[in-house]
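Sharing in case it's useful to others searching the archive later.

Someone asked me privately for the predicted structure of Dephospho-CoA kinase, so I'm posting the question and my answer publicly. Question first, with the sequence:
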Amino acid sequence: MLKIGITGGMGTGKTVVSRVFALLGVPVYDSDARAKWVMRHDEELRQELISAFGTEAFTTEGELNRAYISSIVFNNPQRLEQLNGLVHPHVRKDFTKWAASHTDKPYVLKEAALMYESEAWKQMDQIITVFAPMETRLKRLLRRDTHRTEEAIRAIISKQLSEEERMSRAEHIIYNDDQQLIIPQVLKLHEQLKSSAIIKK
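And my answer, the predicted structure tokens:
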């Protein structure tokens, strides 16, 4: 079974592309959703987060206090690195367990915005990056995130890995630029990946 990573910057549409793969029967691991789950349910990680960020890291109901943690790490690279250093190893372990339950499939997908920053790429056999031009991304994000200004969105994007670097490091690129259709690209790549998995066996 191949482990395929799928990544892309904010607003490129990697989640939409992942959903197309899922419709083809490919298991998809959503790193963001699983990270939230792991932070709530992995007792070892919970204690590490409390040690690093204080008891306010969790609400009195035991839920992750995302607003509190975000306020600490957003403009503090050292604290963000500390948070990621705690969370990402637990997510990698969670992915390993999850992937082991899908060995009947030719390949699985791991969707992750921070594929390279978290070093998740080291677990992958191949990487797909989803590309969209900046102006297209901004239009999508302004429609989706109505609480954010264009300036705020650009500030977030500026802290992410550049599209050029993502594209140079990926084995496959899917263009979600409103010019090329996604489904034919996904279908073609799906067949390629199934063939690769057979060859690997």
